[in-house]
Design brief:
The protein is of the alpha/beta class. It contains 10 helices and 7 strands.
């Protein structure tokens, strides 16, 4: 370290110690430390899981329900969610999170219960559980991260993989003629009478992060009112398995994922 660098570092330390800089109005963001552990996350750089965890923690903190919420995470990238969220969490077998959440909610109806699932988990291995949970109108929140691929288990083609999209099990791209069409499961559950609020959001831009956070807040409020199943899809990226940088993956998401999975509310409460 040269003398100039040392002087610059000292100057910076002096600035941040100034009371005029550290006043409350100058704070851009404070982590919800009552919910979000101060520990590095294992998610790949640029992944949408970390942002989604953060806004989920913010909503839980702001609603003051940290001692009244129970989360369920199955197998997948979200399997270690309990390492980051200081709330009651339980694990579920692959695809069974909504079934586990159903049991928890029925035993503890006064609690706020949510599942946090990826697309391979929710829309493939757990398709049956997902459909029937929503059809029964179980009073829980399902948070569905859709990055179009199996993230943790090797980058295989998922039900949500786009036509022509490459994966480890579709190296030439998804061929609809032999592999079928992508499953728009959020559109399906929106048609079921048991769902009350169904929306598709993203977290790749600040404005979208704010909309996704608002959706989570609404869903918990509807659960408090015992309205039925709330279902929030988050269209996300997977830089590692897409073989892209975080910036490239967000651009690809905008140009390819969102046109196929358009953002917005699919089912909202009737006035």
């Amino acid at each position: 370290m040269n003398e100039k660098t040392m002087l610059d570092d000292q100057h910076f330390e002096n600035i941040i110690k100034e009371e005029s800089v550290c006043t409350k109005e100058n704070i851009v963001y404070e982590a919800p430390h009552d919910v979000l552990y101060d520990t590095p996350m294992h998610y790949c750089p640029g992944c949408g899981h970390g942002v989604t965890h953060r806004i989920l923690a913010e909503v839980i903190s702001e609603l003051g329900i940290v001692h009244d919420v129970i989360g369920v995470a199955p197998v997948g990238c979200s399997v270690l969610a309990y390492n980051y969220l200081n709330i009651d969490m339980t694990e579920a077998a692959h695809g069974r999170a909504s079934a586990a959440a159903t049991g928890i909610k029925r035993v503890f109806p006064e609690k706020y219960v949510f599942s946090y699932q990826g697309d391979g988990d929710l829309a493939a291995i757990g398709t049956g559980e997902t459909i029937h949970t929503c059809n029964r109108g179980e009073n829980i929140l399902i948070i569905f991260i859709n990055n179009g691929i199996y993230g943790m288990t090797g980058g295989q083609m998922a039900p949500t993989t786009l036509p022509g999209m490459k994966s480890t099990t579709s190296p030439e791209g998804r061929d609809v003629a032999t592999m079928g069409n992508p499953l728009k499961i959020t559109d399906l559950v929106a048609q079921l009478p048991g769902t009350y609020y169904v929306t598709r959001q993203s977290v790749h831009k600040p404005v979208n992060v704010r909309k996704a956070k608002k959706a989570i807040e609404k869903a918990f409020q509807y659960q408090k009112e015992n309205k039925g199943t709330c279902f929030i899809e988050i269209v996300s990226n997977c830089p590692s398995n897409w073989k892209m940088t975080p910036v490239e993956s967000n651009k690809w998401l905008e140009e390819n994922m969102i046109p196929y999975y358009p953002l917005g509310d699919l089912k909202t409460p009737k006035a």
